[in-house]
Amino acid sequence: MQRKLLYQLKALLQKNTALYSAVYRLVTLNADYLRLKLGREKYPSRFGGLWTDGEGFEHELSASLRAGDITPDEAESMKAFRHSGALKIEGAIPGSLIDRYLGELDDLRTRENTPLMVTSTELDGPIQYTEDALTRYHSIRTVDDYFFLDSARDILFNPSIVRYLELLLRRPAKLTQSLNFVHGSQQGMHRDTAFVRMNSPMKLLGVWIALEDVTEGSGELIYFPGSHGWEDYLFSGRFKHYDRDRDGEQALDDNYLWMYRQAEQRGVGEERFLPRKGDVVIWHADLAHGGAEVSREGATRRSLVGHFCPQNVRPLYAYYKPAQRKVYTDGDRRYMSSYYRD
Ligand SMILES: O=C(O)CCC(=O)C(=O)O
Predict the structure, then answer these.
(1) pTM value?
(2) Pocket test for ligand 1, best of 305, 307, 308, 309 (most atoms within 8 A of CB)
(3) What confidence score (pLDDT) does residue 198 get?
(4) Which residue, 21, 245, 247, 316, could crosslink 235 as a Cys pair with Cβ 3.0–4.6 Å?
């Protein structure tokens, strides 16, 4: 009921973009983001960024090295991330943990009345997991299985991942969503800032974990290196995130074509991620990425993606689905979900 009212109010406000924008800013206000917007820290994007994007990067990195807060190897990784928008960690997750997770996930999926939900670009909203759904819909993914499975949390909060998340975010990280794929997503090139919406849009990181060796033709992850540094793409001339009701379907195609035009103009080619089981890539909120075409029919590409933000940032679903605002804890791990609650 509360949600229906919120949606009606939103639809009404969206008729006036300037008014909607003002109300949106007020409702989703984030102190950290406000500080960024007031310009005390300088970033290429008008929506702020991570410290690795900032003007003071070299200076801050040297200070961290001097203070012993970061190792020389980690400092090199920060430089690589600033440059390319991606950071790879080889062999981060033990195979035995992945096998335990896949086994537990299978048990949960096949349980009568499984609580697990799946989403697809072809569906309007989440539906209950069925084996049939996994092959019937395009880009199907099981969402937020960490809500039920310790093993999923053990993977997503693996110490090597958490260390890099916290180096990049400079705060404890909060998990807000996960996607488990059996097959390649074949998702078009996009920036997460368009769809994984936060009240500080650039304070977001994607973590992609290979659950098996990934081979060419299986719909491998592709990305445009350095695209996190390209200019902002504005939906409805103002917003960093996409909203179907506000921006319309055409905006998605325009955004997709813009990405390829940018790459062409800048002479940037697609990079393919062909990891071994247990390898991880962490990407920047604005890195253009997607899933390549599956050219070998039936090939699997088992993977798990997590989207993280710092603890002082909120995903937008906390506003339009207030019942999903709760932050859960498991030791020092923090997570939320837009699909499930206790
Ligand atoms: O795994 C993929 O193919 C793409 C995943 C993705 O785009 C995302 O999680 O943002």
Answers:
(1) 0.94
(2) 305
(3) 96
(4) 247
**Ligand 1 atom with least separation from CA of 305:** 9
Task: Over range 23-42, report the average pLDDT.
Answer: 81
In a domain, 341, yes or no: no
For residue 7, what pLDDT is reported?
76
CATH number of the structural domain spanning residue 317: 2.60.120.620
pLDDT at position 254, please? 97
pLDDT at 1: 56
127 domain residue, yes or no: yes
Q: How far is CA 47 from the centre of its chain?
A: 16
Provide the token pair at 9: 């109010």
User: In which domain, by residue range, is 90 found?
Assistant: 76-335
SS (H, E, C) 169-209: HCCCEEEEEEEEECCCCCCCCECHHHHCCECCCCCCEEEEE
In a domain, 43, yes or no: no
What are 267-302's pLDDT values in tens digits? 999 999 999 999 999 999 999 999 999 999 889 999
Distance CA 125, CA 59 (A): 46
Report yes or no on 132 lying in a domain: yes
Number of structural domains (the chain) is: 1
